[in-house]
Q: What sequence folds into this?
């Protein structure tokens, strides 16, 4: 399966709402310009701390349950794919075995959504 996910696969997961944990690791300014529906915003420089939080702290800060280590679909994205690749590696190191990077990133998503 590898550590990346393509646009079509991500779109299908979002539409089926199938246990997807989608994490936007961009800056506040970038997120203000639009995001993929349902994404949790955790800026890349805070990800290590976020994934180290206990479930109660995580829920208080982000308003959603902390994903379990065996979450079947945990996907990271940024603006062009670089930061989310680092975030995916970090999540795998933390034990999130199914973490994947949406390499097309928000730039591809926003372009395809306009068509």
A:
């Amino acid at each position: 399966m590898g550590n990346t996910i393509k646009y079509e696969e991500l779109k299908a997961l979002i539409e089926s709402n199938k246990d997807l944990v989608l994490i936007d690791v961009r800056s506040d300014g970038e997120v203000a310009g639009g995001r993929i529906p349902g994404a949790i915003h955790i800026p890349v420089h805070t990800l290590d701390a976020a994934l180290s939080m206990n479930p109660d702290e995580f829920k208080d800060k982000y308003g959603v349950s902390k994903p379990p280590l065996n979450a079947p679909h945990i996907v990271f994205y940024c603006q062009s794919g670089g930061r989310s690749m680092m975030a995916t590696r970090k999540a795998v190191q933390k034990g999130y075995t199914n973490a994947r990077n949406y390499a097309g990133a928000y730039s591809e998503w926003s372009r395809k959504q306009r068509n």
